[in-house]
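FAQ: What does a ligand-bound record look like?

Like this one, built around arginine:
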Amino acid sequence: MKKLLDVISEYVALAFRALELDEQYAQVVWSARPDLCEFQCNGSMALAKTAHKAPIMIAEEVASKLSEDRDSMFEEISAVKPGFLNFKLKKSFLASYLSEMQKNPRFGSDPVAAPKKIILDYGGPNVAKPLHVGHLRSAIIGESIKRILRYMGHEVTGDVHLGDWGLQMGLIITELSERKGDLPYFDPDYDGEYPKEPPFTIDELEEIYPTASAKSKEDEAYKERALAATHELQQGRRGYRAILSHILSLSVGDLKKNYEKLKVSFDLWKGESDADPYIADMVEMMKAKGLCYESEGALVVDVAEETDTKEIPPCMILKSDGASLYTTTDLATLVMRMQELSPDEVVYIVDKRQELHFVQVFRCAKKTGIVPESVSLEFIGFGTMNGKDGKPFKTRDGGVMLLSNLIKEIEDRMYERILEADPGTDPKSARETAEIVGLSALKYGDLSNQASKDYVFDIDRFTSSEGNTGPYLLYTIVRIKSILRKYAESGGSAQGTEIADATTESEKNLMLRLSGFNAMIENAAEEKAPHKICAFVYELCNAFNHFYHETKILAEEDQDKQKSYIRLLTLTRDVMLQCIDLLGFEAPEKM
Ligand code: ARG
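The answer part, i.e. the structure of the complex:
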């Protein structure tokens, strides 16, 4: 379905053409002054020079040309100094646009003409380390972007890209060897089968890593052993690989449970270690092309460019001992991704502090031909989630906040609020509602900010049912659901009714907001910007609530009018549900 602004612009362009004015200036936009008009065209200002006329004269000519049309789509057209054209849409035109939108299962949005194959790299948890809030943003933003791109028809593969090839693995192996050194994994001569069951539980594993990490900071020899173990793991030592498999099987199960709670999912559960088989050939290729050289023992590729305004250091491919680095696995992962999936685009949703790493990796991948020029590599860097003190979010006692605790805090706060609002609520159903609404508070609190910005995580604000919050959206949706339910229970049915002309300003405003869905979603997908959906659905909720407070709906006696209201409410609910689904949460039936 054509976007409303395009329909209007094309209509205005007819008048420009009739007056022999350049049509490209006929572009109509949403009004910057909703108190004065709904739409405006600013083209006269730009045209003034070439037309040798004052902008207001051009605007007046266009306005009078447009006024000649008896079937105009406008009910008001005015030329305003210095040269604006202001419009108000005819109610019947808007009503028919909405009726058409309602018949369309995508609410008037079209899938892209040329779908792309896109890999989204998000989540990025490190195995054996518990998920912390730093990984929360990647998961929340990535999941929403995945849903948006899929909705537009792109073929998207989400890959969690586990961190499972770095020093943390060597630390775990070292600590384990100190505790359980007589296990066969540590005997280099052992050539039998290793046990099927892991030699530790997930709880033990989660305790081993911080212990080992703390020890390595104090004990240089311990750290050396961990580095050596990491290297041996990477070189393929059998026993260590077997430990890695155990760690992976336990961790992945645990991570999946956590992500499920967040309604985040992945198509691929690959990790850095899956890139290992590609490293040797990749390094050979770089050597053969003469693109890498040795620097202080390490193998590097220059990636600086003449136009750089700050220094971009060479990209390290291998350490002096031959061990691989974060850049190595990311490059080899690209080799693997190109071979297995040949994507048109690879998009990384990672903390913006890693930007330099990705600049190096992208440049190196293009320079060495791992990724052809035609494939787009994109880094979406997100900001930090801070506490109210403006510093990175911590627990009350200053430790790193675990994701599972954070979710619990939000749910508990939500639960309290539900009982405060209605002390009679059955505790079990209050818990269930708190889970659903808590997730909206968490995700909306994050997604409503432009991803690159830091934001303050404020449980009280996020869980409030007033203001620009997830719970506010859900309250609004639940309100609409409840009206529709009551209407149906009283035997009403509005099936087949068309949406009628608005009879009040607030109704017209609601209709105008709804009509912007297709343009908004197209733009949100192009810019991979979930916050655009947030802004849209928040405005839509405001428009609805305004309409609702001014209008009797269930008590309306004129049945036709009531049916039209019901259709409008149904469309509003459906568009809102579509939006929150793209953001990655759901609405309860009751609240
Ligand atoms: N595991 C990394 C971290 O915790 C994030 C991984 C991001 N993705 C990537 N392909 N490098 O910082």
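Follow-up question: can I read anything off the structure? Yes, for example: The CA atoms of residues 113 and 521 lie 15 Å apart.
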